[in-house]
Amino acid sequence: MLFANVLLLWWAVHRQASVPADCPDRADRPDTAQRGSHLAKCMNRDHQTSPFPAPPPIPSIILLVRILILSHRYTVHVRRWHEGLRGRGLHVRVLVRAGEGAREVYAPPAWAGRCAPLRKGWQALAFLWLLLTFRPRVLHQHWFEVPRLARLFPRRLPLVISVWGADIIRDWSTAERAAARRYAGRAAAVLGTSRFLADAAADVLARPVERLYWGVDVRRFSPRPAEPHADFRVGFFKHLLPKYAPDLVVEAFATVHTEIPTASLHLYGDGERRDALARQAAAHGLADAVYFHGKIPYEAVPAAMAQCDIIVMPSRDASETLGIAALEAQAMGVPVIATEIGGIPEAVQDGVGGLLIPPGDAEALAAALLRLARDSALRARLGRQGRAFIAAHFDWERTLDAMEAVYRRVVGGT
């Protein structure tokens, strides 16, 4: 029955592949008012018999771009794209493979999420339903893979793919690389969040990949006075995973604490290394100086960063293709110590908003921490320069401008 429903919806989508005369994608309608009424007629249909939640009513305006985002989960980064584009007046829906749904976000219900065949079938039906009811002008896939849904993508619909890091910076078999290149060849645009990642993706996918820097909301992440504190505070804002080297942070901090007994280390994030890190801190006699705050809501990150004197990001894996935490810290006016690997040197310029050190070098990290701890004037200068650097090159509004330009370009080519 499920297979029959998928076939029926697939037939309906492709039967309507050419836009009907009363829909808003034709250029020969006489005036704006009529375009709005036609759009309302096309988009605000009766969804009472649908097994999926009806999209919110679409206002009667000309919509140049309607975006359907495809992602494995509704991550913080996908949510920022969703909310940022919606704030620009674009109409966006998000279809995810797992996790919880939200307004305009379609996620498998609990009964489907527990069974892979049901989940895949639900996702296929949801995708076809959105093609029929939302009528997207662009598909935007976040995280590179060759999805099972690809066979359902209408050829007339432009595909944009954003690559993120570990989806590209990994070992590829010959067969995987060939399949990836065939699939990427269908895309109207492939985007990378740094020049390092764009070059790596172009090599894997054998096609041009555009650099589109991730941005920071410089109004939310802005310098603010910290609460008075006597200790010297070092912050770490990453998952507690080996690739981000939290063990290196604890090891280097042990040296710093010997020299500056009032220093404290604050780890924000969770992950598989938490218990091991707690044992490592205890072994160094740091149980009272190392604080595990766990994962905090994204909205609480600016306030937490403001309480830190330095933020460290000593990643040891090249899949760290930009370093968002480093961007956000500099926007806050907090200097950063990071490793010279992957795309991090694009996010942190040595001597501008922070200091760069070799990856995997605990002694270099400890030396950089002590240097900044003992030189408040240097910290202040790096903080000012880092803020100016982020405002000039990584403002979120500029990122949204660039993404809108990509959408309008690929739509204009259809």
CATH class (first level) name of the largest domain: Alpha Beta
Helical content stands at: 40-55%
Return the average pLDDT rounded to an integer.
87
Strand content: 5-15%
The quaternary organization reads as single chain
Secondary structural class? alpha/beta
* Strand arrangement in the largest pleated sheet: 3-2-1-4-5-6-7
The number of helices is 15
What does this structure look like?
- The chain is built from 15 helices and 13 strands.
- The protein is of the alpha/beta class and 414 residues long.
- It has a seven-stranded parallel sheet, with helices on both faces.
- The longest helix is centred in the N-terminal third of the chain and has 18 residues, at 116-133.
- The two termini are 35 Å apart.
- Mean pLDDT is 87; it is low at 6-52 and 57-63.
Report a brief summary of the structure.
The chain is an alpha/beta fold. It has helices at 2-15, 32-43, 76-87, 110-113, 116-133, 174-184, 195-205, 246-259, 274-283, 301-306, 324-331, 344-347, 362-373, 376-393, 396-412, and strands spanning 66-71, 91-96, 105-106, 138-142, 159-163, 189-192, 210-211, 233-237, 264-268, 290-294, 310-313, 336-339, 354-357. The chain has 2 domains: 2-215 and 398-412, Rossmann fold, CATH 3.40.50.2000; 233-393, Rossmann fold (3-Layer(aba) Sandwich), CATH 3.40.50.
